[in-house]
Design the sequence.
């Protein structure tokens, strides 16, 4: 499942992140790339352990969002990287590593920190079997996509692209099961909003709980 959440960060949170990143030390992004991704990764990343408080802001913002909760079912949001692309930088086609330390990467996200008008190029391109889609979101908005896709970041030709990328280990490993749960839960919530706690709502709630009991790991 691929989806966007506009304005997942508040204006204040975005400002705080920009303030801290303005003076922070960035290092070559190749240090955290897998052996083949190193060949195509040309960007900079915030030095490890520097951005703990910024990471907390991002994790909390995603965690509190109902769509992220229901669509992703996060067990752990992990491996956040504040990444910077100056002119000439890009990240060529790759799939994300399946494991990052002890966590699985099921679902990837890119949270855009720069305004899209602040740079040229720098689109996140998600490649399908016979087509591809380019994304360049406004600052504070996030795109969430399966970690299993091939994707790339086009070269920045002007300005600077700041993003935070990260991964989620989902309680539900299988994307098809995750989607079934999402659909049923969405209908359940909509029924509740329209008619309150009806017997139909109770049955759907029971199904969501029982499917989670079968599938969650
Ligand atoms: O910067 C982005 O939008 C994506 C970066 C990426 O694909 C990665 O870090 O694995
Ligand atoms: Fe990636």
Sequence:
């Amino acid at each position: 499942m691929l989806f966007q959440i506009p304005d997942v960060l508040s204006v204040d949170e975005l400002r705080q992140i920009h303030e801290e990143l303005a003076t922070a030390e960035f290092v070559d992004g190749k240090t955290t790339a897998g052996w083949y991704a190193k060949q195509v990764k040309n960007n900079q990343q915030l030095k490890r352990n520097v951005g703990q408080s910024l990471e907390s802001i991002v994790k909390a913002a995603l965690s509190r969002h109902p769509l992220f909760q229901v669509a992703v079912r996060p067990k752990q949001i992990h491996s956040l990287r504040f990444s910077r692309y100056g002119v000439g930088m890009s990240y060529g086609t790759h799939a994300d590593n399946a494991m990052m330390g002890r966590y699985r990467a099921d679902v990837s996200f890119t949270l855009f920190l720069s305004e899209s008008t602040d740079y040229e190029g720098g689109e996140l391109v998600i490649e399908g079997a016979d087509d591809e889609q380019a994304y360049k979101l406004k600052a504070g908005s996030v795109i969430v996509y399966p970690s299993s896709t091939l994707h790339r970041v086009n070269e920045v030709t002007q300005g600077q692209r700041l993003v935070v990328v990260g991964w989620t280990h989902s309680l539900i490993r299988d994307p098809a099961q995750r989607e079934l749960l999402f659909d049923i839960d969405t209908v359940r919530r909509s029924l509740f909003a329209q008619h309150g706690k009806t017997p139909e709502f109770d049955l759907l709630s029971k199904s969501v709980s029982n499917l989670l009991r079968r599938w969650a790991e």
Remarks:
- The mean pLDDT is 96.
- The pocket of 2-oxoglutaric acid (ligand 1) is lined by residues 83, 91, 96, 110, 124, 151, 153, 163, 165 (CB under 6 Å).
